[in-house]
Design a protein that fits this description.
The protein is mainly α. It contains 9 helices and 3 strands; from the N terminus they run αααααβββαααα. Strand 2 and strand 3 form a beta hairpin. Helix 5 crosses helix 9, helix 7 crosses helix 8 and helix 8 packs across helix 9. The protein is globular, with a radius of gyration of 23 Å. The N and C termini lie far apart (about 85 Å).
Length: about 260
């Protein structure tokens, strides 16, 4: 009788790791401010978290702009004195989200690590959450492409600022036309700029008029800087008070705010 042939046992193999994918598991109940240097979630992860919670549309005027995504602004968007503003912040801006107006604002809050209620209140101050809002009318040669003098209904004038956060075209030219036609792009860039300030990348604020020395980690100081372009000067302080007042009222939940 022939001897038995030993059975060959195949070596065990570990399963190949699956690509990391955003998950809705453990979606934060609300998005809060993350300190300077914190690891921020990706836009895709924030999109998954935000869409796991319905948020009824309360600004019907935004429906078209809410369904348009944005674009990259390039790696030289910021012209300040800290290269990290471009390498760490500008390269993340893309406006790649669609949803209701409230979802878009929460997505921006998640992506840039800022308290969502601050975002909801500030957007109410800037535009009453309307992406079609135009502002900072000028007669100078600072008009956006296709939005020349008189094109938007005011003879001899054009708007410099556009959208839900009133992003200002002359300072954000590589973000055109996204800041005007995409709600997500507008909010994405506005809070990328806030994060740049909050991280301490805007040392130039210590070279101009200021109420105190600029430093990282001052969330409300960076809200005031959005309005005034300066650090803790009176116009910025007054603006912060207005945002805080809307936050205290939770103005976005009031009956008069609803425009479905």
């Amino acid at each position: 009788m022939a001897s038995a042939i030993p059975t060959r046992v195949a070596p065990s193999r570990s399963p190949k790791p699956s690509p990391s994918r955003p998950t809705a598991a453990a979606a934060p109940a609300r998005f809060t401010t993350k300190g300077p240097g914190a690891t921020l979630p990706s836009g895709a992860q924030c999109a998954t978290w935000v869409k796991s919670r319905p948020y009824k549309e309360n600004k019907g005027v935004n429906r078209a702009a809410n369904q348009k995504t944005g674009h990259h602004v390039g790696g030289s968007f910021f012209s300040g004195d800290d290269a990290r503003a471009n390498s760490k912040i500008a390269t993340r801006v893309d406006g790649q989200f669609t949803g209701s107006t409230g979802q878009i604002l929460r997505w921006a809050a998640c992506k840039w690590g800022i308290d969502e209620d601050i975002v909801l209140a500030q957007a109410a101050i800037e535009s009453w959450w309307r992406q079609d809002t135009l502002g900072d009318w000028t007669t100078a040669s600072r008009c956006a492409p296709g939005r020349g003098l008189g094109k938007d209904g005011k003879a001899g004038q054009c708007p410099e600022s556009f959208g839900i956060l009133q992003n200002r075209y002359p300072y954000e030219q590589s973000a055109w036309p996204g800041i005007a036609n995409s709600t997500a792009m507008n909010a994405d860039l506005a809070y990328a700029i806030w994060r740049t300030c909050y991280e301490g990348y805007e040392g130039w604020l210590n070279t101009v008029e200021r109420g105190r020395d600029y430093k990282a980690g001052d969330a409300w100081g960076c809200i005031g800087r959005w309005f005034s372009g300066r650090w803790h000067t009176q116009p910025g302080e007054d603006y912060v008070k207005r945002v805080r007042d809307y936050l205290d009222q939770r103005i976005w939940e009031t009956a008069n705010f609803q425009e479905p």
